[in-house]
Amino acid sequence: MPVYEYFCEPCNGIFEELRSMRDFEEPVPCPQCYKDAPRIMPTSFSAFTFRDGYPRRIPDDGKFYHLGQKVNKMITSARPNEHPEINKPEPKVKKLKGEVTEINDTVEAAVKGDLKDLYGNAVKPQDVKKGLESGRVYKKGTPGLD
Length: 146
Description:
single chain; alpha+beta; 26% strand
């Protein structure tokens, strides 16, 4: 049902009323003084259309707003208050060629059994990468012998 505007002369006020289309011409009682008020032409107009289930103002450029910034796609899933176009994830840092070579040499030493941690314990080859990424220090040499 559309919303129509009515003007009450005794109150000198404009008010809106939700009416069916067949009853729009009939006067409506004023909410202030309860006297019949005739329908008037709208004092304001706001055009909008629906896109993806949401009302959009005309002209619609096809963009969406997320926290005051324009984005191309509507958010479908993310953390609260984040949008994939605005809060882009940081790319993973690639290791340099020398770092990769050093990791491979350390893994080979662990496979041979020549790698130990600072406590003198042997290091398993599968634990080398994780240990180096977390900042652990390993020594090459026979475990248990100093």
